[in-house]
Amino acid sequence: MRDFEYEAPSTLASAIEQIVQGNGSVKALAGGTDLIDHIRTGRLRPNLVVDVKKIPELNVLEVGSEGLRLGAAVSCTRIYENAEICEKYSALTDACHIIGGIQVQNRASVGGNLCNSGPAADSIPALIALDATCVIAGPQGSREIAVEDFCTAPGRNVLESGEILVELNMPARPAHSGSHYLRFIPRNEMDIAVVGVGASVTLDDSGQNFVSARIGIGAVAPTPLFAKEASEVLFGLPVNEESINKAVEAARAIATPITDMRGTIEFRKHITGVLTKRALEKAIERARQ
Fold first, then answer.
1. pTM of the model
2. Which of 100, 177, 223, 288 qualifies as a cystine partner to 202, CB 3.0-4.6 A?
């Protein structure tokens, strides 16, 4: 591992200033579970690493009438140990439970997972399903962007020079709503999704009709996808296999995977449909509870 400078600012303003002064050769560290490995292997060669875990704004974790505020440096463990988040934002806790092992989960953050911007990142389809918004701060002030628009290419995102992802906001969950995230991996020793799907649904009072839905898909395109047509096709339809199959076909249609060591194009498209159906069925089950 090459030498680099290390800073651990306690304020957001200081962190932004240090990143700006780094002039492009700087990386922010939230959990560091990916960053440190990339530096060790030479994939990344920053001159400065700015540890953002001591900044209060990046450690906020609040669930209230307005929804969920999730600081970018909050660990996966803190998320799934919160009973209210497990109940209302279950797709997110599903993802947090399978990002690495327990040791990794104690360090890794959803914000860091998002900023790493891997196509197969587990948290991003769940965040898309839960309609998350990214709050970004930088030298020009703050801005917000929908999570489905955050990643721009494998390992790349919308963060500009000097900017930091501060938090993720998710709206309050309506009554009769449920969500789920699941993935397919080739074996337990290869902890990277071949396909990952997050689904969120809201049902009417009877539990027999869809009011709304959102579906996020990972590992089948250069960036995680919001399956807009697959989500919208369910609006107002009865909750049955025919309706779900319409969403399945629409989700499969937007998948543009590659063939690699984890699976072929044909297999990944098939699994996209299988997981979309299973994620919707589990989300419906949770909504009816």
1. 0.96
2. 177
